[in-house]
């Protein structure tokens, strides 16, 4: 079993080119012994963006913890806010934009 506080986890810059104003924390991954799923915490500062991209074989389950923003699925821009739950199927394009003056934080669970 593992128990730790998210503030104990190092913040990294996401590897996706074009991302700005964003950090990711790998809260649970194979480094902690997880074999099937990873849990990540994304923090998107005001004006921050995660550009449009897709993952051919990886679905995402997302829970918005704090703030507001826009989810762009390449067809429409969908407002998101704290408490929202998102499912992004494998192969579906998506991006995140924080156009507010508040921090946007979300948990993203992905298969390993």
Low-confidence segments, given as residue ranges, are: none
SSE run: EEEEEEEE
CATH topology: Jelly Rolls
How many strand segments?
8
Indicate the overall shape: globular
Query: Per DSSP, what share of the residues sits in E-state strands of 2 or more residues?
Result: over 45%
CATH architecture label name: Sandwich
DSSP helical segment count:
0
Tell me the major beta sheet: 8 strands, antiparallel
Structural class: mainly beta
| Count of the domains | 1
Kindly describe this structure.
This protein is mostly beta strands and 112 residues long. The protein has a single domain (10-70, 79-111), classed as Jelly Rolls. Helix content is 0%, strand content 53%. Strands 1, 2, 3, 4, 5, 6, 7 and 8 form an 8-stranded antiparallel β-sheet that branches. Strand 1 (20-28) and strand 2 form a beta hairpin. 18% of the residues are buried.
Give a quick rundown of the structure.
The chain has a single domain (10-70, 79-111), classed as Jelly Rolls (Sandwich). It has strands spanning 20-28, 37-53, 60-66, 68-72, 77-81, 85-88, 94-97, 104-111. Strands 1, 2, 3, 4, 5, 6, 7 and 8 form an 8-stranded antiparallel beta sheet that branches.
Question: What is this structure's SSE topology?
Answer:
Elements: E1 20-28, E2 37-53, E3 60-66, E4 68-72, E5 77-81, E6 85-88, E7 94-97, E8 104-111
Antiparallel strand pairs: 1-2, 2-7, 2-8, 3-6, 3-8, 4-5, 4-7
